[in-house]
């Protein structure tokens, strides 16, 4: 029986196409604005990826923060909040404080009729990418597809890569490996963080995530037989050889890093099934963290 998570993972190419075709003209950060992006968990990692992409595209200074760590008093033209549920306590508290300070805010959400609808000045609704699973997959990548398109990227190749990723055979060594280290460079470092989180949430795997060039500065000591170093994006010269010299496996592909994340999601689900875990309902997690007032 297909789980909600599996169906949602498979739907990502269609979600990305729709997000690109419906990119709003005015609600998202304007070129030249000084912007902060906030979120919790997966949304924080998407925020990190977008911040790098926005600056790289020349749209203006962009910072990313966990919502609970947003630095009050720092001036921004706009704060972009990412929240699938629209109910996350830390995001709502940050938006309330920003309204009192007079800072313009936009929220991307999948959930109409939730508190974020009135907490933010502008709303981008991606309810078609909402999920029944607790684990975020398609909402995370769909909002990043939307943001990439808004920056002027042509996502035709990324969508084609996603089509391949949802159906390609999974690397056999990923299904029984003892440990995973995910690496990224630039914007794909945020995706490496998200890849590690997906594996921890869905199948309780031992995972770590690092900027690729930092991996040599200590973390490579964990590499070895039955352990995988998984690169999202193009790897630094010589790193594969260094990992393989430890007896570890090094994985990378030519896929867009966002599409490669789909492969990681599928591995997490496959490993969850092998362990008798339900990837729709990870242990100790709920759809939204709502703290007592």
UniProtKB/TrEMBL annotation:
The keyword Oxidoreductase does not apply. The keyword Repeat applies. Keywords: Repeat. Coiled coil: none annotated. GO terms for biological process: fructose 6-phosphate metabolic process; protein N-linked glycosylation; UDP-N-acetylglucosamine metabolic process. It catalyses: D-fructose 6-phosphate + L-glutamine = D-glucosamine 6-phosphate + L-glutamate. GO terms for molecular function: carbohydrate derivative binding; glutamine-fructose-6-phosphate transaminase (isomerizing) activity. Pfam families: SIS. Residues 25-163 form the SIS domain. It is an enzyme of class 2 (transferase). Its EC number is 2.6.1.16. PROSITE patterns: SIS. This is Glutamine--fructose-6-phosphate aminotransferase [isomerizing]. It comes from Streptosporangium carneum.
């Amino acid at each position: 029986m297909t789980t909600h998570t599996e169906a949602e993972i498979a739907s990502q190419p269609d979600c990305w196409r729709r997000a690109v075709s419906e990119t709003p003209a005015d609600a998202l950060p304007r070129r030249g604005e000084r912007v902060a992006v906030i979120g919790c968990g997966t949304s924080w990692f998407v925020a990190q990826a977008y911040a790098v992409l926005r600056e790289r595209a020349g749209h203006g200074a962009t910072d990313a923060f966990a919502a609970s760590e947003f630095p009050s008093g720092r001036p921004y033209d706009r704060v972009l909040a990412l929240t699938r549920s629209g109910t996350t306590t830390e995001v709502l508290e940050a938006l309330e404080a920003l309204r009192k300070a007079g800072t313009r805010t936009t929220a991307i959400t999948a959930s109409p009729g939730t508190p974020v609808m009135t907490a933010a000045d502008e709303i981008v609704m991606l309810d078609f990418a909402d999920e029944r699973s607790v684990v975020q997959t398609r909402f995370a990548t769909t909002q990043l597809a939307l943001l990439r398109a808004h920056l002027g990227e042509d996502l035709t190749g990324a969508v084609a890569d996603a089509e391949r990723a949802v159906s390609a055979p999974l690397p056999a060594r990923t299904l029984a490996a003892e440990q995973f280290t995910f690496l990224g460079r630039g914007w794909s470092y945020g995706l490496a963080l998200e890849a590690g989180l997906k594996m921890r949430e869905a199948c309780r795997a031992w995972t770590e995530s690092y900027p690729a060039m930092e991996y040599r500065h200590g973390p490579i000591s964990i590499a070895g037989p039955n352990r995988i170093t998984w690169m999202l994006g193009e790897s630094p010269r010589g790193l594969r050889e260094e990992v393989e010299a430890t007896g570890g496996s090094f994985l990378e592909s030519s896929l867009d890093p966002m599409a490669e994340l789909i492969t990681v999601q599928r591995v997490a689900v496959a490993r969850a099934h092998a362990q008798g875990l339900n990837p729709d309902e990870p242990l100790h997690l709920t759809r939204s963290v709502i703290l007592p007032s």
